[in-house]
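Researcher: Go.
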Amino acid sequence: MSAPLDLPARTAAAVALLKETSPETLDAFLELSAVFEATTLDPHARETVILTVAERNQCHLCVDMHEAKMASLGPAPDAERLAAVRAFTLRVLASSGAVSDEDLADFEKAGYTRRNALEVVLGIGTYTVSTFANRLVRAA
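Model: Structure:
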């Protein structure tokens, strides 16, 4: 799989650096990213997961890129639902996936499903690869 050609210069440089250093890591990230984009989470929720991971892992490149992508989506239809995604993502990260029954119930009360919960885990894994790789190669 190859990286998109219409990337901003800063992002293109990071992709090129990762491709040069570890094309397997880049390919794995791109494949996982495509799978994450195909989940049942809506675009605002996916970007919320990505931004939560990027902020937590201090990947400034990802934060900048995904803040711009979030802004391009327009206003979120339901800010409370996005707050629930962010809170759940942070709980999954803090507990290494062992969220409490209460945490899962809170996520479901916000209108999400167990499938969505696992999609959050997929997003965390995908963007942990990206943020860690960016920081390791000094692209972030």
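Model: Residues 1 and 88 are 31 Å apart (CA to CA).
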